[in-house]
Amino acid sequence: MLLCRLREQVLRELGFRDIFKKVKDEENAKAISLFENVVQLNDAIEDEGKRLENLVRGIFAGNIFDLGSAQLAEVFSKDGMSFLASCQNLVPRPWVIDDLDTFKMKWNRKPWKKVIIFVDNSGADIILGIMPFARELLRRGSQVVLAANELPSINDVTCSELVEIISKLKDEQDQLVGVSTSNLLIANSGNDLPVIDLTRVSQELAYLASDADLVILEGMGRGIETNLYAQFKCDSLKIGMVKHPEVAQFLGGRLYDCVFKYNEVSS
């Protein structure tokens, strides 16, 4: 946390405030053009469990677009990335932490009323990974709060960028491919780093989270490096791809392995 804070401070003092803005804009435009197709492919899966697993795989595939990882930044600069190919090429289950089967059981038995999702990167991550998942929650009757950074850091999506993205994804009826967005909220997390200290969120988010019954932390920085063992008063899900060799070694997994850590609180 301290190293991230120092890095951002030095970059901003030297005038580097949003160094990946052009790349983020380009990737957002590409992902927006693919959104409807990705959603329709998910909707075509009739089995609830298989559809949920496909949505989860989409989150992992989207999370690959991360310019904070040296290896992935190099791959991205050479070849770009295909979202659908990334879905198919994920490391096979069981993942290094794999509570997906438990989560699947709760998915049908436990309709969460209010879900807070701490989002991660721009482009395919937020648009093709998180948004189809959030749309599915909306369709099932949950209120969904997307919590995004206040200020730019690496290629993380900011709150103001997220507002613009969602306005482009919605149709004239304020729907996401046939699903109402009346229960979708966007919140400023108060954060300006690729990791997060949950004791320092914005007042807005603290208020919105007071009656949440599921908190999701997505991405390696928020979900693994800083909050993997964080305990909540409500159900929690930490989900992200392992993109640094040191983190893979710490977890006893492989590079590009997946973490899906679900904790249920007893009522």
From TrEMBL:
Quote the SUPFAM superfamilies the UniProt record gives. AF1104-like (SSF111321)
Any one GO CC term of this protein is: cytosol
Domain of life, per UniProt, equals: Eukaryota
Gene3D superfamilies for this protein:
Uncharacterised protein PF01937, DUF89, domain 2 (1.10.285.20), Uncharacterised protein PF01937, DUF89, domain 3 (3.40.50.10880)
Query: A GO BP term, please?
Result: coenzyme A biosynthetic process
Q: Where is the Damage-control phosphatase ARMT1-like metal-binding domain positioned along the sequence?
A: 2-259
**Pfam families of this UniProt entry?**
ARMT1-like_dom
Signal sequence segment: none
Q: Which cofactor does it need?
A: Ni(2+)
Q: Name one GO molecular function term.
A: pantothenate kinase activity
Name this polypeptide is given: Uncharacterized protein At2g17340 isoform X2
Taxonomic source organism: Vigna radiata var. radiata (Mung bean)
- The protein's gene is named LOC106763400
